[in-house]
Amino acid sequence: MYEPIRTKSVHSMADDASFPHRSREEELDIQLAGHLAALLAVTDELRALAPSAELDAAAEQLALQVARLRRGVRPARSAVAGAIHEPHVAALHQRAHALAGRALVVAASRADTAAAILAAERMDAHADATRLVGAS
Q1: Residue pLDDT, tens place only, 60-78
Q2: DSSP line for 81-120
Q3: Backbone torsion region of residue 79, taken as left when φ is above 0, otherwise alpha when ψ lies between -120 and 50, otherwise beta
Q4: What is the reported pLDDT for 18?
Q5: How far apart are CA 8 and CA 87, in angstroms?
Q6: Are 115 and 103 in contact (CB under 8 A)?
Q7: Residue-wise over 13-50: b if at least 16 C-beta within 10 A, else e?
Q8: Euclidean distance between CA atoms 57 and 76, whole angstroms
Q9: What are phi and psi of 110, to 5 degrees?
Q10: Which residue did the predictor score with more confidence, 134 or 44?
Q11: pLDDT tens digit sequence for 77-134
């Protein structure tokens, strides 16, 4: 009455050798490196709009952490030039604060103390900067 199925179902589990597997730690490294690289990009943009020694130091620390997580591959850096206006700077600080928060969550879940401390410091710095820009 029915013809038997001759091929393997698409719903069956794939062969283990058919695709590469990464451990949970490797996945968390990739995710954390991505969050820190995004935070570095926003930090570079803030440095272009409002240069400061504190942002320079933070950018260097972020670049070092990303390179460590990527096994020595340094992140791409951008030189952004734009018009300075306060709402834009405030929005960048808010975005950086959110990115630092995401990085903190991932760093805490993988027990990466150095990245967690850096992310927490960046969260505090961007929260303070957002308040200062908003008060102006």
Answers
A1: 999 999 999 999 888 888 7
A2: -----HHHHHHHHHHHHHHHHHHHHHHHHTT-HHHHHHHH
A3: beta
A4: 64
A5: 57
A6: yes
A7: eeeeeeeeeeeeeeebbebbbbbbbbbbbbbbbbbebe
A8: 17
A9: -100, 5
A10: 44
A11: 876 655 455 568 889 999 999 999 999 999 999 999 999 999 999 999 999 998 887 7
DSSP state of 14: P
Percent helix, strand, coil in the chain (nearest 5)?
Answer: 70, 0, 30
A 10 A CB-CB count for 53 gives 7
Give residues with Cβ within 8 angstroms of 3, minimum separation 6: none
Q: Identify the pLDDT of residue 118.
A: 95
Which residue is it, tokens 């103390």?
113
Identify the burial level of 93 via C-beta atoms within 10 angstroms of its C-beta, where 0-12 means exposed, 13-18 middle and 19 or more buried: buried
d(C-alpha 46, C-alpha 100), whole Å: 14
